């Protein structure tokens, strides 16, 4: 239970630090849980109750981050062009 409470508190603190435009997006689209923690029974319901935001468990939560990373690598050219312009502004 201590670990679950720590997860809930970490989510709350993170949401409090979010810029307003990001908070609005999260409120509209919801929080998506990934990884092994997403498989904890009723963690989605608990986070929804504690945050007041919609919470969704990703399809295939154990693999979705790796799958998304692979898709990003397939489109690395899109990230490189954006990354170059950001570096020049620093």
What does this structure look like?
- It is a single chain.
- The chain is mostly helical.
- The chain has a domain of 62 residues: ATPase, nucleotide binding domain (Nucleotidyltransferase, domain 5, 2-Layer Sandwich), CATH 3.30.420.
- A two-stranded parallel sheet has the order 1-2.
- Strand 1, helix 3 and strand 2 form a beta-alpha-beta unit.
- Helix 1 packs across helix 3.
- The N and C termini lie far apart (43 Å).
- The mean pLDDT is 89.
Number of strands: 2
Sheet with the most strands, sense and barrel status:
2 strands, parallel
Helix content: 55-70%
Shape type: globular
The second-level CATH architecture of the domain at 2-63 is: 2-Layer Sandwich
Low-confidence region ranges:
none
Q: How do the SSEs run, as a string of H and E?
A: HHEHEHH
Rg over CA atoms: 16 Å
Mean pLDDT level: 89
Provide the spatial order of strands within the biggest beta sheet.
Answer: 1-2
Beta fraction: 5-15%
CATH superfamily descriptor of the domain at 2-63: ATPase, nucleotide binding domain
CATH fold call of the domain at 2-63: Nucleotidyltransferase, domain 5
Number of helices: 5
Main CATH class of the domain at 2-63:
Alpha Beta
The rounded distance between the terminal residues' Cα atoms is 43 Å
Q: Which class best fits the helix and strand makeup?
A: mainly alpha
